Amino acid sequence: MNAVRRRLPFSSYSDAYALPSIIMCETNLYLAQFAFMKLLPAKYIIEKALARGNLTDGMKVIETSSGTFALGLAVVCREHGFQLEIFTDPVMDKGLENRLISLGAEIVIITEKAKRGGYQRSRLDALHARMRQLGSSCFWPRQYETPDNPAAYAHFADQISGILDADITLIGSVGSGGSTCGTMERLRQKAPGARLIGVDTFNSVIFGQQDGERKLRGLGNSLVPKNVKHELYDEVHFISAPLAFAATRTLHERHAVFAGPTSGASYVVGRWRARQYPEETVVVICPDEGHRYVEAVYDHKWLEQNGSLDEGVPLDAPATENHPSTALPPWNRYHWNRRSREAVLHLLENAS
Q: Alpha-carbon distance 338 to 86, whole Å?
């Protein structure tokens, strides 16, 4: 019998679950499966703020989030004894809200959309008003703009390069830009030719589409975050909600990987890329597990009621477009070729 290597226990939940498991899915396709990825930047941002003296005893942490960055903050704030106030909108699911409340967070639900920027703009406006009330007794992590967000993923990049080497093709969903940009910046320090493919959804402005309703949550944006460094991306794939939901279930059925729909969206792109380029090592970021989606993505009746059944949705290959404005569902590939942020803003101005 092989000896079992002894290791010390983790000192906290955040220490135990901040980094993912690396799973070989096919010959050249690997999944980086997080419990919930936003725990990693939440932990890094809070601990850096403590070290710098920007966050001290008695201060309240406030942030805008409708997803798992709020949960990451709630975990870390509970571990360090800080109060947390989250500004969100009606899209936050009840299960996540209940877990946040259980961890001691205060939830403020913003019910009116701003005319430009949607809920994200109105949430930010409410947060700024709250900051004026609290003055110096609050700390705002600023997930969409602080350089500590992408910097947190250096640990993840080192994990990948230690297991697989740094010369990889990284595929991940894009929301704040922290995970894909931070990881790739670190990888390219060792392997300048490493490739980055961003996964966005239709009606997201990040790569030049017009803002609109998005059924696929956890990626995309109504504003262009400062932490999205567009010049790092080689390709962008736009994925529809029905395709992402179908791919999420396929990932579970074929590989027993229980994940959320942003993972499914990235997985379908990663599987295609790995088969098109068998000489590459493809790593797909899977941002969270599937527990929040049991009664949604994994439920046929919910899919039918929400017009998201995958009947006729192709899982094989994307169409390729020459301009983001002409990209149409269910799946489009766009050669981004490391264009700048200014190029995105130019696209948006010309389309409006």
A: 34
SS3 236: strand
CA distance 23 to 37: 15
The residues pairing with 288 across neighbouring beta strands, listed in sequence order, are 36
Bridge partners of residue 335, in order along the sequence: 235
Straight-line distance from the first to the last Cα atom of the chain, in angstroms, rounded to the nearest whole number:
67
DSSP per residue, 301-326: HHHHHTT---TT---S--EEESSGGG
The model's pLDDT over 178-219, given as tens digits with 9 standing for 90+, comes to 999 999 999 999 999 999 999 999 999 999 888 888 888 889
Distance of alpha carbon 122 from alpha carbon 110, whole angstroms: 7
Sheet with 235-239: strands ordered across = 21-26, 29-33, 282-286, 169-173, 195-201, 235-239, 331-335, 319-321
Query: What digits encode the pLDDT tens for the residues 124-145?
Result: 999 999 999 999 999 999 998 9
- Residue whose pair of structure tokens reads 């088969």 in the numeric block: 275
pTM over cut 0.85 = yes
